[in-house]
Amino acid sequence: MIPISFGPQVCGHPEAGTAREWLVPDGRGGYAMGTVSGLRTRRYHGLLVVADDTGANRRVGLVGLDPAVVFPSGAHVRLGAHEWASGDVDPRGYELLERFDLVDGLPRWRWRIGDVVIEREIAMTYGRSCVAVVHRLVTGGPVHLSLAAVCTWRDAHGERRADGPAPHVEPVAGGAVVESAFRLAGPDWEPEGQWWHGAHHRAEAARGLNPNEDLWYAGRFAATLDRPGATVQVLAWADDLADEPPPAVEVVAAARRRNRSVVAAAKPADNVDATLALAADAFVVATAAGPDVVAGYPWFGAWSRDTMTAYEGLFLTTGRADEGRELLRAYAGRLSEGMLANTADTGRVEYNTADATLWFLHAVGRHVEVAGDPDLAAELLPALRTVVDTHLTGTRYGIRVDPTDGLLTQGAPGEALTWMDARVYGVPVTPRAGKPVEVNALWINGLATVAALAELAGTDAGPVPVAHARAVESFRRRFPSSSGWLHDVVDAPAPTYPLGGAPHHDDDHLRPNQLLAWSLPHAPLAPDRRMLQAVGAALLTPLGLRSLAPGSHDYTGQHRGGPADRDGAYHQGTVWPWLIGPYAEAMHRAGLEIGESLIGIESHLPEFGLGSVSETADGQAPHAATGCPFQAWSVAEFRRARRF
Questions:
Q1: Please, are residues 623 and 617 in contact by the beta-carbon 8 Å criterion?
Q2: C-alpha radius of gyration, the chain, whole number
Q3: Which PANTHER family does this UniProt record tie to the protein (predicted)?
């Protein structure tokens, strides 16, 4: 894997150190997460963040273990770091950090206090909500080390305050149980019980959200490090609180072995590929319903559009076809009116997507081809035929084939059904009602996929070939525009008319959605070098492609500010790294080189979410990363793009 290491110039700098975040997932949707400097900048940061059985809903438990070193002289040095609502940063333990390393995907810090060096390592038990924290004396000593356990128990999206009840902490052998939800274990536990008021999260302040909360100082562990190599080991875990995990050093060693095996199974071509293989592993989780995909850390759960878009990069390029097969079968069993639910992150199952189900057809087709799995084709064909039939006759939100041209149309008042689905105060920013270019490219690709799978299974494809031929003919006639690229939407409602009214117009905003018309396995168009060059010239950046060309009326170059500002910019110029996959494939099919276009994302791997790829970035230079630091389809599509 690529080396990711930082010295004191980054670790000891509050802005540089906090801009780089690490993630240790537990394989269930929970995680430990923080910054290189140790300063918590998000409400989502913590050492034990526990996911429910779906992997979508998370609660923050153990916030931190603040180290303090006591020397034989009585000198007391605090190594933790906190920012407060007053503006103070105290303590400032990052000023003593001499090194941070990401080793086999696990974070390691080294603090130096004169000739004393103390090292910290963090790992999680895969498949269990359990974190292990090991502090080790590297040189010097003896010293006494205490670890202040800072706790809460709340929804990951919220805060907890001292004006409510204090967390219930019950002493047990070797530690304590907090809120009957998670257990702490380590040496020489001493209860405390005190509110720390006004912990400040600067990243939440920048996002226009409530940045402050109160934390509960539950107690502390302590031990003497009398010689180099001596350790202080602490565990925290949820679920079965009576089932004590192995010692923390064993958890760390097991996590390293597993991460190495994940990388080896992916058969990486180089160190970057190996890094991306391990990054991909973070998103594949086991839930009560079987394998699933976390769309992004720290705040997303499972989104079917993201899952199916990322499917090839997460499963088929990493040696996980068996898990992928199980996932596809489970999703097929949850189809409703020929549609996949988009997400349940909002607390209810939502079917408000025109493209996720079409990405599902694509994922099944790629699985059958790449994994050589004709049995899955035969098993899922009835479900896939149901998808086609319901789209031909019509399903939710006006999603149906227009009988006049065979293209797929969609739209309903107040809805944004494509991947460009942002809303501001409930109003869609880019509703894209009508016939979006990528939705119809996916529809045509899906029809061709179902026809090919039916032929493989030796069954009749029914109306699929005729529907496919008609849609292809209409696509080739309707979508090319006089602007030199493809229309983004045809038959869109005119701006002065309500949805469903007349007349219609064809939207020729220069957006990246048209890339799917050239990149999909059964794309409706052969790549056009002139059009591809127009797309690249306007949209390509070091971190991926802009969602709208600069110079467009609604272009917004920064994805910053409060929720309304960020949502308003989300698909109006903001860069999306996942689009590098369709761009690379279209370029490859056109016989054009792609390699130099990938350098920026490769250089991004140690810049934001360490060893991973961010959700989004600013449209204007220097294209600072935004959104989730760790995003599934960004990793998956970048990894896939490197194969062209």
A1: yes
A2: 26
A3: GLYCOGEN DEBRANCHING ENZYME
Q: Which two tokens stand for residue 261?
A: 């095996």
pTM: 0.96
Residue with the two structure tokens 């090839």 = 312
pLDDT band at 343 (very low <50, low <70, confident <90, very high): confident
DSSP-derived letter for residue 247 is P
With bands split at pLDDT 50, 70 and 90, how would you rate the model's confidence at 323?
very high
Q: Which residues, 6 or more positions from 503, have their beta carbon under 8 angstroms from its beta carbon?
A: 494, 497
CB of 120 within 8 A of CB of 135?
Answer: yes
Please report the DSSP string for 160-192 in residue order.
--TTSPPPPEEEETTEEEETTTEEEE-SS-EEE
Task: Report yes or no: 445 and 358 within 8 Å, Cβ to Cβ.
Answer: yes
Residue 319 to residue 625: CA distance in whole angstroms: 29
Whether the per-residue pLDDT at 61 is higher than 70: the answer is yes
Identify the sign of the CA torsion 564, 569, 570, 574: negative
3-state secondary structure 25-56: ECCCCCEEEEECCCCCCCCCCEEEEEECCCCC
Residue with tokens 């309304």: 564
The C-alpha angle with vertex 279 and arms to 277 and 282, in degrees rounded to 5, equals 115
- The CA distance from 168 to 174, in Å, is 17
Residue reference for tokens 């079965």 = 240
d(C-alpha 506, C-alpha 481), whole Å:
9
For the segment 157-168, the average pLDDT, to the nearest whole number, is 96
Q: Which residues contact 217 (CB under 8 A, 6 or more apart)?
A: 148, 149, 150, 151, 192, 193, 194, 195, 196
Q: Which residues touch 171 (CB under 8 Å, ≥6 apart)? A: 189, 191
Q: Phi first, then psi: give them for residue 613, nearest 5 degrees.
A: -125, 135
The total of other beta-carbon atoms located within 10 Å of residue 346's CB is: 10
pLDDT of residue 342: 87
d(CA 222, CA 214): 24
Helix/strand/coil for 406: coil
Contacts of 568 (CB under 8 A, 6+ apart): 422, 424, 429, 556
Write the single-letter amino acid at 196: W
For residue 300, give every residue at least 6 positions away whose Cβ sits within 8 Å of its Cβ, in sequence order, or none. Answer: 294, 306, 345, 628
Please check whether residue 68 is in contact with residue 124, taking contact to mean a CB–CB distance below 8 angstroms: no
237-291 residue pLDDT tens: 999 999 999 999 999 999 999 999 999 999 999 999 999 999 999 999 999 889 9
The widest CA-to-CA distance across the chain, in whole angstroms, is 87
Closest CA to 337 of 319, 352, 316, 318: 352
For residue 445, the 8-state DSSP code is H
Span of 16-25, 88-97, 374-383, 503-512 with lowest mean pLDDT: 503-512
